[in-house]
Structures are given as C-alpha cells and as structure tokens.
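Two folds, back to back.
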Amino acid sequence: MLADWIERHCWRLVIGVAVVIPIAVGVLVTRGLRRDYTLEAFVASDSDAYREFRGLMEEFSSNEFAVYAMETPDATSDETLAMVEWIVGRARALPAVGRTASIADVPERLRFVLGDWIWKHPLFVDTLVGRDGKTVAVLLQMTGEGATGAVRKETVGALKSILVGARERFPGTTIYLAGPYVTLIDMYDYVDQDLICFSGAAFALILLTLGIVFRRVGPVVYCVGVSMAATACALGVASALDWPTTLVTQMVLILVVVLSVANCVHVGVADDEVFARTPFLDWRERVRRVLREMVAPCSAVMVTTMVGFGSVSISGITPVRMFGWIMVIGLGFALVFSLICAPLLAWSRAPSATARVGTFLPGRLQQLGVLVARNRWRAILGFAVGTGVFVMGLPWLGFESDFVKNFRPESEVRRSYEFISSHLSPTGSMEVVVRRRDGGVIVTADAVGRLRTAGLKVTESFEQVRKVLGLADVLTVGEGDRPTTDFGVRARLAGARSMFGDGAIRNFLNDDQTGLRLNFRVAEGVSVGEKQQLGIDVEAMVADVMGEAYSATVTGLYVFYSTLVCELWRDQIRSLGVTVPAVLLVLVMMLRSVRVGLTAIVPTVLPIVFCLGAMAWVGIAVNMTTAMMLSVTTGIAVDDAIHYLWRFRRRLRETGDYDAALRDAHASVGRACVFTTVVIAGGFWILTLSRFLPTAYFGGLLAFTMCCALAGNLILLPALVMTFKPFGLPVTHKA
C-alpha cells in the first residue's frame, strides 16, 4: 500500500522534498517570472477574430493609444497651446510613442490661414478639441506590440510622471491620462498591489484559523509549509519554462496556498482523531493509520480539483490556458508534499501530549446530522426551492466587455474615461477595413468617396457610433471639398503626407495602398450581444454602400473584446462538459458505486447554479475572470463531498448502521469541512476589498460558492444518502 510505502521511506522522501524546494526557489529567484504587459498577453487566442485584430495592428498604424485630456478656460488660447506643447515635448521623447496629435502639431501657417474653421473639421473636433471650446487633448499613438512588456511598463510610468508634472506646472487645470495603452498597466498595478496587500491578510487569516483549529504549532507549520512549498515549486516550473504571468495567472498564488491548506487541514484533523483514539501507538504506526485513511480521499480531492482547473486549459485564450496549467502543477505538488510530509505531524507531537479534539463543534454537527436525517425530505425540498429561485435569475445573467467597468467608480481610471467620453469622443474603437476584391490599389476617388458616405451613414444610423474618421478627412484639411478625381486624390495624399507625415496617413491607408480603414468611436453601455450585433450591422452597411467590387471587415478592440468574452464563456461551457463527467468518474472509481457517485454530484453541481443565479440577481456580469468560475468551482466544491462519503462508507461498513455512520461523518469530516470552508471562504472574501473589480467578484463569488457547497455537503448530501441509501444494505464486519 502507498501508506505503508510512505511510512517506510518517510525520511528519504522528506529529504527529497527538502532538496526539490530550494532548487525551485533558486530557479524562481535567478530567472524570475516573465511579466508580459503587452495587450497580446492579455487577449491572445486561437480565434479568427484575434487573427483579424492582430492583422489590423500590423497592417495599419497601431490602434494602441494614450490620451491626455485637459479642461481649460479657452482651448485656443496661448496659455493652452503652451501647456499642450509642454506635454507633447516630453511625450515625444519616449521611445514607445510613435507619433503625437494635438493642436500643437497643426502647422502654425495652417492655423493662421484657416482660423477657427480648422477646429470644426472632423479630424480635430471631438478628437483634439471639444465642442465646448474648453477641452483639448494630446493623442499619443504608441508603437504597439512591437514594444516589449517592460517597455510598456516603463512608458506608462513616464506618462504618469508627465501627468504629475503638468498638474504641478499648470495648477487649476483639470488634466487626465487614459487610453487602452495605459489602462492595461493600471490593471496589472491594481492586481499587484492587491496581491501584496490581500495575500498578507489572507495568510494572517489562515494562520489564525489554523491556530484555533489545532491549537499547536506542528499542524500549522505543516499546512503552511506544504502550501508555500507547492506554490514556490509551481512558480519555479513556470519560470523554468519561461511562461509569462498575466492578469489571470496572478491569482495562482492565493489559489494554490488556500487550496493546499484546505487539503492539509483534513490530514491534520485525521491525525488528531487517530491520536485521540490511540494515544499509546508508536508514531510510525499512527502515521500508517492516518495515511490509510487519507491517501485515497486526499488524492481524489486533488485530482478532481486539478481536473477542474485543467479543463480551463482547453480554452483557446492563451492566458487562461497558462492559468489552468500552472494551477494543475501547483496542486500536483501540494498533493505529493501533503502526503510525504504527513509523517512529520505524528513525529512532531510530544510523547506526553494529550489529544485536543474539541467536543463543542462535533456535538453541534452531530445534532445537525440527526436533524437532517429526521427532516430529509424537507431538506431536499428546501434545496429544490432554493435552486428554483437561483435558476429564475439566469435569464438576466449579463456579459461585460467594457474595460473601464473593471475599476470602481471612484477610481482615477474610471473618472478619466468618463471625462473624455463626456467632453470629447468615446474611447471605444471599432475599425472597418475595406479592400478591392481584385486586390488592386484602392486609392481612387470612387473608393474614398464611397467609404466616406458609408462612414457618415453608419454614424447617422447607430446611436452608439458617435464619430468616424477616414482618409477623406485627412484629404480635406485645408483644401475644402473632397477630391473627385483619382489624380486629385493622389495630389491631396502627397500634400497630406508632407503636412502630417506618413504615420498619420498609415492610420487610414496601408503601405501597399490596397486597404482603407475607417475608425469609429463607439460609446460603451451596451451588452456584449449588442456589441457583436452592432459589428455585424456596421459591416453589412459599409459593404452595401461600397458595392460588389469591394469587401469590408469589422474588427477593433470594441468588437474583439466582446467576442473574446463570449469565446471564453463557450470554452467554459465546454470545459464544464469535461469536468462534470471526469469528477463523476473519479467519484465512481473511488467509492466503487455509480449510485453513490450520482448522489455526490448533485451537491457538487448545485453551487454552480447558485453562483450563476447570484450573479444574475446581484447584477455581476460574466467577464474574463468570472467566466472561469464554472469549472473551477466544480473541482473545488466536490472536495468535501469526497471526504464526507469516504468516511461515511468506512463507518457504515464497521457498524452496519446508516444513522451511526451519519453521526460519525458529521462529527469528524464535518468538522474538517467547516474548517476548510472557513479557510477557503475567508481567504477569498478578503479579495472583495480589491480595487480591481474582477478580482473582487471572483473572490466574493468563490467564497459564496464554497459556503453553498458546505451547506450542500452537510445538509443536502446526507439527506440524499439517508433517503436513497446509495450504499445499499451494509454488511457488518465484526472485529
């Protein structure tokens, strides 16, 4: 048996663990974790939508931008121009800033000749100057994914330093910094700060809980040591394989620690109970008994949890895949370390020690078990009604793809976007790329004119589309009407190049002049489905106006991110289809009964329904983080059910009495289940204080789901077992 083998070789195995851990830590310290701050690391996937989005960024100028927005007494005054020039001069010095666009970049002779008319031109109004005559902006077009993550991080830090300097130099002026280029780093910063803050708080809570549970140092050191060692080894493997850490994978640290501790708590409680029953035994024999009781359920628990996280890795979204694999590795280390180091629990107990297994909680749990057995149909009916209430909310479950909604309303990020959206144009970007079907040059008067007409028709037809910019807008600066001949288009294009540079032209025309791009500024505030439908409608309308000779393709972050959320949700539904059968298979193999497995799967799946229903009723939308709740919670929620049924079956074989088995399972495993739920739920409830809302939602929902799982395992599961007797009529084995 594995238990006997671990006991015989315990010191060799412990020494092996002691060797592995420093190696992993050494790799982690010397190589470090690769931090990828690029947009690609956040949204990369295997989908056609992503390939179209990447193709757009490579073919035209990057649509990654940052923007300074300022509210002044007069947008055209010399003082305002001086402030803009001060910001532009410092921003241009940054290597990652490809080009700038502001009133300072408009040639002075053009401003003098055209006067106020220029500020009414579509290329400038609501982009560089507001219609209120008080708002001005500096638009920074970044070099995009050509810059490494480290460069992005440094650049955003420099941009924020410029913001601080501008506020100090021009007091009384409202100045904000926003844009997707900046927001992605803000997300990382918020998560990093939360990780430092809440990891410490969660760790303190875990120590407090473990101290209350065990009231001695040995089990506390065992639980914490195993969890920290597993986390270090998982991160060491990630570092050795050069896997990048992203917003999603940063949750690995607290997840591995909390779940490892929860598993170790069951081993520690079993050690206390074995010692309480047989304090006279040699520590080696006690180790064998503990491991014989715990190897199978602990292995099944970790395997099902690994299945839950592993199923996430079928996603086509790269950061989600990495998250799943790192979690599987971390939990694998946690299982191995928890079993190998279990002998230290018995060995560390002083020979004169006395058992410290309290009677209050086991007694109350036994009373709960008896109450459930007497009212099992009421318990089942109560859960059925509760399930119905949560199911009724599912039609209202929404999807969220607005980056800004990831931040709390009072945050600087949220206020920046709201200011820009209300004083200038929305930051949502939808792109339409038009080409000739024969692949020829598209710089013709016909194509430019049709595209301009299509853009205006879209803005008139859809309320969410607030502004459109295209090559026609560049060609009419300082020249009046749009050119009507091919020669006129080429002449104007040459003049625009000399005036604004190649970078400005490449926003709307690719290098080989075979593709034209329309940029729509689109307001948020609609559902994911409406965004996707808007993209379909805009593409159809542009294609209709352009005619049979042209093709039109819609992309851009506005549409792509909504597609990404839906893609992730579909992946999670698919992964749930893998997780539930896999968990059921583990239950059947472990408990050697299909009936018992089916009984256990009910309280395992219901917490997922409760979680989704709670999201719908409270108004928490599905996003990149909450979409992963399905498979993750399935793998975690089944853990206590496995421990409970394993103990129930063993006790039933000993006594032949369902009632006695119920009381024993509630008093022993029920106690450990309460403790592990406190550890898991407490660790994740702390995350609800996060300034990054996806983290807050993930922590709160996971804590809520674990509490639901505890209720299901201590009320619904025993009610089902006592009603349907899935173990059959037991045969009592006398000693």
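---
second:
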Amino acid sequence: MFEAGMLKRWRFRPNGQQTDLAALGLSPLVDKLLGNRGVIESQQARDFLDPKMTQLHDPQLLPNISKAASRMSKAVRDNQPIVIYGDYDVDGITASSILWHTLRLAGAHVRTYVPHRIEEGYGINAEAITAMCEADPLIISVDCGITAVEPAAIAKAKGVDLIITDHHEMDAENLPDAYALVHPRLPGSEYPFGELCGAGVAFKLAWQFARVHNGSDRLPQAYRQLMIQQMSLAALGTVADIVPLVDENRVLTTFGLGQIKHTDFIGLNALIDAARLRDEKIDAYHVGFVLGPRLNACGRMGHAKDAVHLLTEATEDEAVDIAEFLTEENDKRRATEKKIVEKAAAQVIDRGYDRADCRAIVVADNDWHPGVVGIVASRIVEQFSRPAIVLNIEGDEAHGSARSVEGVSIHEALQHCEDLLVSFGGHAMAAGLRVKVDKLDAFREKLVAFVNDKLSADDLCSIVDIDTECELEDLTLPQVKQIERMAPFGPHNPKPVLCVRNVQLDRAPMLMGQTGKHMRLTIRQGSQYQNAVAFGMADLAPQLYPGMKLDIAFEPKTNHWQGRTSVDMMVKDLKIRE
C-alpha cells in the first residue's frame, strides 16, 4: 500500500524549555509552540503575541548611522543632489522608496537608480558610479554595496561621498572605503539584532535622519505619520527577503501588515487593487506570494525602475497602469519559469544529478531567462531536496542563482569554490554567481564534493517539521485562534505544524478545485470529527477508503465561510497506518 509520507521525513522539533503561561490565558499547546520558538518567559510571550513599536531598537545603535544621517541632512540643507542606489528585488525597491519619501519630505533634490538585472547585474557597479559622480551628488546605497570595494574607491577618488547601507554577507577584511558603512553586523557592531533586511536598515536610517534633520528625537507630526506609513514598505521588504520574522522584524511586519490596506501611498494602493486584495486581510502569505512577486516581476522580466516609480512618484493614473503592467509581467514570469523548471528538471534526471552521491545540482543552458533562474533554483531545490544552482550561459560566461537547504550555507560553499568563480555574493540560503563556461565542470565537481561532506544520502528528502502531537479534541476554535496570534509566520517563526495519530477516515475523500487536484477529508477520533484539506494530493484519493487509519501532519487554520468560522486542518503530509 502506498504510504504518502514515505517520500517525506517527519521530524519533530526539539521541545524548548517550557514555562507555564497559563496566567496569560494560554493553553498548554500554545505554551509548547512558543517554547519551541524560544519564547519561554511570560514577558517574552507578551512581547511576542502583542508586539509594540517600543520594541524597535534605537537606530542610533546601528554602526555609523548618525554620521550617515548628518551627511544626508547637510546635503538637504545645501541642496546637493542625492542619488539612492537600490537593488532590483522587493527589498531593494521598498528600501529605495522609504529613503526617497523621507528625503522628499525634507525638501531634498533626490532621485533613485536601480541597475538592470541582466545588463548590469547585482550590486553597485563601477560604470554607474562613474557616471553618477559627474553631478557631484551624495550617493546612498540600499540593500547592496557591502562588497563594492572598487566602486567605493572610484567615488572617493572623484571626491563624492558614498553612504553604503546593506545587510548581506561581507568580507570583514576587505570592506569598501566609503564615507559611512551602515550594516547591523559590521565588525564591532553592538546593534542588538543582526537580521534586518535592506528595507529594515533603510527604515532605521530614515528614522535617524528625521531625528538629526529636525534636531529632536521627538519627530514632527508629518515625519511621525510618514514613518508609520513606511512600516508597510518595510514589511513588504522584510517578508519578501525571507529574513527571520522575530525581534524587530516581527514588530515591523506586524504593524506594517496592519497598515498596508490603510496606506496613503498611491502606488501601493494600486498594487493591492490590481492583485484583487482589497477585500482580503493581507498577511505574510499575500506579501510573499501575491504582492511581492508582482514587484519582483518587472526586475526579472524588464527593469525594476518601474516598480520604484510606482512606490514613489507615480500619479494615480500612472500607478494603475504600472500595477496592471506588473501583473502582466508576473504572468509572463510564471509561464517562463514553468518552461525552464521543466527543462532544468529534465537535465538533472538525464545527467544523473539526482543520484544519492550527487548532493548538489548545477545546471546551465544558453536559453534560460536570467531574470527567473533564482526562482527556478528554488523549484529545483523543492523537487530534489538538495542545493541547486541554475545558470544562463552567455558567450564564455554563465551567470545565475543558487539556493540551498538546511545544513548547507551556499555562501560558504561558493567561498570554497571561489578560485573557479568570476564573482559571487549572497548569504547562507541564496546567492548569485558568475563562472566561466570552461570552468563549469570543475566548479560542479568541487561544489558537489563540498556539499557531499555536509549532507548525507538520508538528508535528500523533503522534511516535514512537526511541533508536537495533539488530539482532535484539542482543535477547538479558541485554541486555533490562540495559535494564529503567533503570526506573522516566516523564518524562525514557521507556521505551527501538528500531527494527529491513528485517526479514522470517516468517508471517501471529496475532490476539490476546478482540476480536481485537491481533496477534502473527514476524519474521526473517538467522538470527535474534523475536516481536513489536502492541496495537490488528490492522486492519493483512490487509495483512501472509509474506516482506514491515518497519521496526519497539518497546519491548523480558521476558515471563514458565509458568516461562520470553523477549524480546518491543512494537510502537509499523511501516512497510512498498517
């Protein structure tokens, strides 16, 4: 008999130290879920479940931020041109927008610059910096630049001040010689939280600039209102960049998501309407899978300057047009991505890169759109459960993206192979790289050898991480509502996954969806009945019959339908018991 879970490994999270949080009105189940996330004290739980803006750290603690803010204020007073140099992803787009709005409120002469993903590549490039310097501006990078040693040297040689704000991995022994480096993890930094994204760092710089420029820690009303509004942009960048949703990232995201549908930003409103989210309660899922991909799409398929314009200077008519254009571009991106995923997966299988002794994948082709290879790499990781690098070949060079799995820092892996690479950059789970085509085979061999030492053959399967077991009787509406208070979910605070064992299938599965790919189950444990929804698992329906016993891993969720609220189990995996 087929066992659905046999291709997935169930792994129970180690139970964190437990503290009785009953005084807070929390159930033992929620107590356990919080403990698994390191929340073990009453005050921690209060801060986690009821975030407050006062939990944001003082921006002055960020290295060099006061120096940077003072230089920005001087540029505004002197009417010196300011250029914001941002990355082309959602994090960079929102970071650019945050600084633009703040500087414009101060009356600055400011413009944005976004490199073309394909023609210029990631980060600050020397040619762009050289051209910018002709106008003698103050240049501020966001979400990039911490490895831009050569461009920083060019700016300094031309007498142009460059402020670099970033959050990516750095070479601490070879930092750019810029006017100021603002990065939460700089050597010697005492900033209490090192996992801000680029938009988070930009938000902190905007805050500190507003303080310095207005000569007071207490901001004027216009600046206070703008900073609250801009939490929605910071939330977009934070969720889309997949940084840990804990500490002040959790605060920014919580308040930003709450603010997003009440935003005064014309472009953000147009984006929400184009995505048909006006009547939805927008959460991290909608940012990660609906709004974020639209902002990313123009950078992948064309030029991200359109997305920056949408969130900064666009009029209402322009915003509607751009938002619709981004939706169309996202549709094109999805179609292109689907074709490349199919070809990349076929290459993996045809060449034996899915063997147990080949625990990393490197695939390349000269006909793959360079704007979507990062997403394709993520899909290949999901399909084959190992780090994957997907490259587009142009001439004698291949360039593309890497994605990794738990247990392997892809940045460390690329460092190990840097003698074979033209360039690379990124962090533990994602990176970009360039490699000469004649070095491609040697690079693949060296990378595979490195990863083979990090992963065992048993690691090459999908893993379902489970918080704890429960009974169906635990899934009351108040209990699940308590669990949903743990949102927003993301890295370091994943959606809670529970499992029930030895439940009985009460009736034959009911197929769902226009294509019939999903199914709804009704299960029973003693006198308790419960509905469970299994997306994409309808192929198992013929093997499931009433009365059979199952173990089910699931996410608990409230379901609102026709004025009624009930509990649903969103099935992650199931195992048929003998």
